[in-house]
Amino acid sequence: MFRAKLRILTFAAIFTLPFFLTGCSNTDDMVPEEISYKIIFLHHSTGHVIWKGETGGVKSVFGKKEAVPSWFAEYNKKHGTGYYITEQNFPKAQPYGWNNYPFDYYNIWVKNAGNTAFKEEPTLEMLTKEYDMIIFKHCYPVSNIKADKDSAQIDSPERTLANYKAQYAAIREKLLQFPDTKFILWTAASNVPDNMPEEEALRAKEFVDWVINEWDVPGDNIYLWDFYSLETEGGLYLKEEYSAKKGDSHPSAKFAEKVAPLFGARIVDVIENNGEKTNLKGETK
Fold first, then answer.
1. Model-level pTM?
2. Do 225 and 278 meet the contact criterion of CB atoms below 8 Å apart?
3. CATH class of 3-273
Protein backbone atom coordinates (compact mmCIF):
# COMPACT_ATOMS: atom_id res chain seq x y z
CA MET A 1 0.00 0.00 0.00
CA PHE A 2 1.51 3.28 -1.09
CA ARG A 3 0.84 5.51 1.90
CA ALA A 4 3.42 8.05 0.69
CA LYS A 5 0.86 9.56 -1.70
CA LEU A 6 -0.69 11.42 1.22
CA ARG A 7 0.96 14.82 1.14
CA ILE A 8 0.95 17.62 3.72
CA LEU A 9 2.23 21.09 3.03
CA THR A 10 2.52 22.01 6.69
CA PHE A 11 4.61 18.99 7.66
CA ALA A 12 8.00 20.64 7.15
CA ALA A 13 7.36 23.20 9.86
CA ILE A 14 6.04 20.58 12.25
CA PHE A 15 8.97 18.30 11.42
CA THR A 16 11.76 20.83 11.91
CA LEU A 17 10.59 22.59 15.07
CA PRO A 18 11.39 19.69 17.45
CA PHE A 19 14.92 19.54 16.02
CA PHE A 20 15.51 23.15 17.01
CA LEU A 21 14.25 22.59 20.52
CA THR A 22 15.77 19.26 21.49
CA GLY A 23 19.11 17.51 21.86
CA CYS A 24 20.60 14.62 19.92
CA SER A 25 17.81 12.16 20.69
CA ASN A 26 14.70 12.79 18.66
CA THR A 27 12.87 9.47 18.91
CA ASP A 28 10.72 10.55 21.82
CA ASP A 29 10.38 14.21 20.88
CA MET A 30 9.20 14.30 17.28
CA VAL A 31 5.46 14.07 16.77
CA PRO A 32 4.49 13.09 13.22
CA GLU A 33 1.15 13.87 11.65
CA GLU A 34 -1.29 10.97 11.55
CA ILE A 35 -0.94 10.76 7.77
CA SER A 36 2.86 10.99 7.72
CA TYR A 37 4.88 8.24 6.06
CA LYS A 38 6.83 6.94 9.05
CA ILE A 39 10.38 5.59 8.77
CA ILE A 40 12.61 4.16 11.47
CA PHE A 41 16.35 3.67 11.17
CA LEU A 42 17.83 0.96 13.44
CA HIS A 43 21.58 1.24 13.95
CA HIS A 44 24.63 1.48 16.17
CA SER A 45 27.58 3.86 16.07
CA THR A 46 28.39 3.82 12.35
CA GLY A 47 24.77 4.57 11.55
CA HIS A 48 24.78 7.38 14.09
CA VAL A 49 27.76 8.99 12.31
CA ILE A 50 25.83 9.03 9.03
CA TRP A 51 22.70 10.28 10.78
CA LYS A 52 24.56 13.22 12.30
CA GLY A 53 26.93 14.17 9.49
CA GLU A 54 29.64 16.76 9.73
CA THR A 55 27.43 19.32 11.45
CA GLY A 56 25.85 16.94 13.94
CA GLY A 57 25.41 18.11 17.49
CA VAL A 58 23.01 19.96 19.75
CA LYS A 59 20.35 21.65 17.67
CA SER A 60 19.01 25.12 18.25
CA VAL A 61 17.76 28.01 16.15
CA PHE A 62 21.35 29.26 16.12
CA GLY A 63 23.13 25.97 15.93
CA LYS A 64 23.67 22.71 14.16
CA LYS A 65 21.40 20.20 12.48
CA GLU A 66 21.82 16.48 11.92
CA ALA A 67 22.42 15.46 8.33
CA VAL A 68 19.68 12.91 7.64
CA PRO A 69 16.77 14.65 9.43
CA SER A 70 17.83 17.96 7.87
CA TRP A 71 17.87 16.40 4.42
CA PHE A 72 14.32 15.15 4.93
CA ALA A 73 13.13 18.47 6.31
CA GLU A 74 14.40 20.19 3.16
CA TYR A 75 12.91 17.52 0.91
CA ASN A 76 9.52 17.77 2.62
CA LYS A 77 9.57 21.54 2.34
CA LYS A 78 10.48 21.48 -1.34
CA HIS A 79 8.11 18.69 -2.41
CA GLY A 80 5.24 19.03 0.03
CA THR A 81 5.77 15.50 1.33
CA GLY A 82 5.21 14.11 4.79
CA TYR A 83 8.16 11.79 5.33
CA TYR A 84 8.91 11.41 9.03
CA ILE A 85 12.19 9.67 9.90
CA THR A 86 13.47 8.77 13.32
CA GLU A 87 16.22 6.53 14.67
CA GLN A 88 17.17 4.36 17.59
CA ASN A 89 19.96 2.09 18.74
CA PHE A 90 19.05 -1.52 18.03
CA PRO A 91 19.62 -3.57 20.05
CA LYS A 92 20.43 -1.51 23.13
CA ALA A 93 23.43 -2.35 25.26
CA GLN A 94 21.15 -3.58 28.04
CA PRO A 95 19.50 -5.94 28.56
CA TYR A 96 20.03 -7.58 25.14
CA GLY A 97 23.64 -6.61 24.52
CA TRP A 98 25.40 -4.33 22.02
CA ASN A 99 25.33 -6.77 19.08
CA ASN A 100 23.56 -6.21 15.76
CA TYR A 101 24.94 -9.01 13.61
CA PRO A 102 22.83 -11.28 11.37
CA PHE A 103 22.34 -13.63 14.31
CA ASP A 104 20.84 -10.84 16.42
CA TYR A 105 18.24 -9.75 13.88
CA TYR A 106 17.39 -13.41 13.38
CA ASN A 107 17.24 -13.98 17.14
CA ILE A 108 14.95 -11.03 17.87
CA TRP A 109 12.80 -10.96 14.74
CA VAL A 110 12.56 -14.62 13.73
CA LYS A 111 13.36 -16.94 16.60
CA ASN A 112 11.60 -14.77 19.18
CA ALA A 113 8.95 -13.21 16.93
CA GLY A 114 5.61 -12.12 18.28
CA ASN A 115 3.70 -9.22 19.74
CA THR A 116 5.89 -9.03 22.85
CA ALA A 117 9.32 -7.41 22.98
CA PHE A 118 12.29 -9.76 23.35
CA LYS A 119 14.64 -8.51 26.05
CA GLU A 120 13.05 -5.07 25.61
CA GLU A 121 13.73 -5.03 21.86
CA PRO A 122 10.78 -4.58 19.47
CA THR A 123 9.89 -7.43 17.16
CA LEU A 124 8.77 -6.93 13.57
CA GLU A 125 5.19 -7.54 14.67
CA MET A 126 5.55 -4.46 16.86
CA LEU A 127 7.58 -2.26 14.52
CA THR A 128 5.40 -2.80 11.47
CA LYS A 129 2.37 -1.51 13.36
CA GLU A 130 4.17 1.81 13.85
CA TYR A 131 6.26 2.31 10.72
CA ASP A 132 5.78 2.20 6.96
CA MET A 133 9.49 1.62 6.37
CA ILE A 134 12.13 -0.08 8.51
CA ILE A 135 15.84 0.44 7.78
CA PHE A 136 18.43 -1.73 9.49
CA LYS A 137 22.16 -2.31 9.36
CA HIS A 138 25.16 -3.93 11.02
CA CYS A 139 28.19 -2.16 12.44
CA TYR A 140 31.66 -2.77 11.01
CA PRO A 141 32.61 -5.87 13.11
CA VAL A 142 30.12 -7.74 10.90
CA SER A 143 32.92 -7.84 8.32
CA ASN A 144 35.22 -9.81 10.63
CA ILE A 145 34.02 -13.12 9.19
CA LYS A 146 35.71 -16.33 10.28
CA ALA A 147 36.22 -19.49 8.24
CA ASP A 148 33.20 -21.77 7.91
CA LYS A 149 32.73 -24.82 10.08
CA ASP A 150 31.48 -28.11 8.68
CA SER A 151 27.93 -26.80 8.31
CA ALA A 152 25.82 -23.73 8.95
CA GLN A 153 24.43 -23.27 12.46
CA ILE A 154 21.51 -20.87 12.25
CA ASP A 155 21.26 -20.52 16.05
CA SER A 156 24.95 -19.73 16.46
CA PRO A 157 26.24 -16.17 16.99
CA GLU A 158 29.58 -17.22 15.48
CA ARG A 159 30.34 -14.95 12.54
CA THR A 160 30.87 -17.24 9.54
CA LEU A 161 29.61 -16.96 5.96
CA ALA A 162 27.50 -20.09 6.26
CA ASN A 163 25.83 -18.86 9.44
CA TYR A 164 25.22 -15.41 7.96
CA LYS A 165 23.57 -16.89 4.88
CA ALA A 166 21.32 -19.18 6.90
CA GLN A 167 20.29 -16.33 9.19
CA TYR A 168 19.71 -13.98 6.27
CA ALA A 169 17.54 -16.53 4.52
CA ALA A 170 15.33 -16.74 7.61
CA ILE A 171 15.26 -12.96 7.99
CA ARG A 172 14.22 -12.55 4.37
CA GLU A 173 11.31 -14.96 4.77
CA LYS A 174 10.22 -13.04 7.86
CA LEU A 175 10.35 -9.64 6.11
CA LEU A 176 8.18 -11.00 3.31
CA GLN A 177 5.43 -11.64 5.86
CA PHE A 178 4.87 -7.86 6.05
CA PRO A 179 4.15 -6.86 2.43
CA ASP A 180 2.72 -3.45 3.40
CA THR A 181 6.03 -2.46 4.99
CA LYS A 182 9.13 -1.60 3.00
CA PHE A 183 12.54 -2.61 4.32
CA ILE A 184 15.96 -1.22 3.45
CA LEU A 185 19.08 -3.12 4.51
CA TRP A 186 22.51 -1.51 4.43
CA THR A 187 25.21 -3.70 2.97
CA ALA A 188 27.94 -4.47 5.51
CA ALA A 189 30.11 -1.71 6.88
CA SER A 190 33.80 -2.42 6.30
CA ASN A 191 36.92 -2.06 8.46
CA VAL A 192 40.24 -0.32 8.08
CA PRO A 193 43.12 -2.74 7.29
CA ASP A 194 44.44 -2.64 10.87
CA ASN A 195 41.18 -4.14 12.12
CA MET A 196 40.62 -6.87 9.55
CA PRO A 197 43.04 -9.40 8.04
CA GLU A 198 42.78 -9.92 4.30
CA GLU A 199 41.10 -13.32 4.54
CA GLU A 200 38.28 -11.76 6.57
CA ALA A 201 38.07 -8.83 4.16
CA LEU A 202 37.69 -11.24 1.25
CA ARG A 203 34.89 -13.07 3.05
CA ALA A 204 33.18 -9.76 3.77
CA LYS A 205 33.26 -8.89 0.08
CA GLU A 206 31.92 -12.34 -0.77
CA PHE A 207 29.07 -11.82 1.69
CA VAL A 208 28.18 -8.41 0.27
CA ASP A 209 28.26 -9.79 -3.28
CA TRP A 210 25.97 -12.64 -2.21
CA VAL A 211 23.53 -10.21 -0.57
CA ILE A 212 23.37 -8.06 -3.69
CA ASN A 213 23.31 -10.79 -6.33
CA GLU A 214 21.41 -13.62 -4.63
CA TRP A 215 19.70 -12.63 -1.40
CA ASP A 216 18.11 -9.48 -2.82
CA VAL A 217 15.31 -10.43 -5.20
CA PRO A 218 13.62 -7.81 -7.43
CA GLY A 219 9.94 -7.11 -7.08
CA ASP A 220 9.41 -7.58 -3.36
CA ASN A 221 9.32 -5.24 -0.35
CA ILE A 222 13.05 -5.57 0.49
CA TYR A 223 15.65 -3.10 -0.82
CA LEU A 224 19.34 -2.33 -0.32
CA TRP A 225 21.53 0.69 0.24
CA ASP A 226 25.08 -0.26 -0.74
CA PHE A 227 27.04 1.35 2.07
CA TYR A 228 29.91 -1.09 1.57
CA SER A 229 30.62 0.21 -1.92
CA LEU A 230 30.53 3.82 -0.75
CA GLU A 231 33.09 3.07 1.96
CA THR A 232 35.42 0.88 -0.08
CA GLU A 233 35.02 2.25 -3.63
CA GLY A 234 35.91 -1.11 -5.15
CA GLY A 235 38.51 -2.14 -2.56
CA LEU A 236 38.33 -4.43 0.42
CA TYR A 237 38.60 -1.87 3.23
CA LEU A 238 37.20 1.41 4.45
CA LYS A 239 39.30 3.94 2.57
CA GLU A 240 41.83 5.72 4.75
CA GLU A 241 40.52 9.16 3.83
CA TYR A 242 37.03 8.10 4.93
CA SER A 243 38.11 6.88 8.37
CA ALA A 244 37.37 8.96 11.46
CA LYS A 245 41.05 8.64 12.42
CA LYS A 246 43.94 6.28 11.84
CA GLY A 247 43.07 2.76 12.92
CA ASP A 248 39.39 3.60 13.45
CA SER A 249 36.76 1.73 11.42
CA HIS A 250 34.14 4.38 12.09
CA PRO A 251 33.64 6.63 9.07
CA SER A 252 34.45 10.29 9.41
CA ALA A 253 31.85 13.00 9.81
CA LYS A 254 33.02 14.46 6.51
CA PHE A 255 32.30 11.17 4.76
CA ALA A 256 28.91 11.06 6.48
CA GLU A 257 28.06 14.49 5.16
CA LYS A 258 28.95 13.26 1.67
CA VAL A 259 26.80 10.11 1.72
CA ALA A 260 23.83 11.23 3.84
CA PRO A 261 22.11 12.78 0.79
CA LEU A 262 22.54 9.49 -1.09
CA PHE A 263 20.94 7.69 1.83
CA GLY A 264 18.03 10.11 1.76
CA ALA A 265 17.68 9.83 -2.00
CA ARG A 266 17.63 6.05 -1.86
CA ILE A 267 14.93 6.07 0.84
CA VAL A 268 12.70 8.44 -1.11
CA ASP A 269 13.19 6.52 -4.35
CA VAL A 270 12.20 3.28 -2.64
CA ILE A 271 9.08 4.97 -1.26
CA GLU A 272 8.05 6.68 -4.47
CA ASN A 273 9.42 4.47 -7.26
CA ASN A 274 10.26 1.11 -5.65
CA GLY A 275 13.93 2.01 -6.00
CA GLU A 276 13.88 2.11 -9.79
CA LYS A 277 15.35 5.59 -10.31
CA THR A 278 18.49 5.21 -8.19
CA ASN A 279 21.24 2.62 -8.09
CA LEU A 280 22.01 0.76 -4.86
CA LYS A 281 24.22 3.62 -3.67
CA GLY A 282 21.42 6.14 -4.04
CA GLU A 283 22.81 7.80 -7.15
CA THR A 284 20.33 8.82 -9.84
CA LYS A 285 20.39 6.40 -12.76
1. 0.86
2. no
3. alpha beta
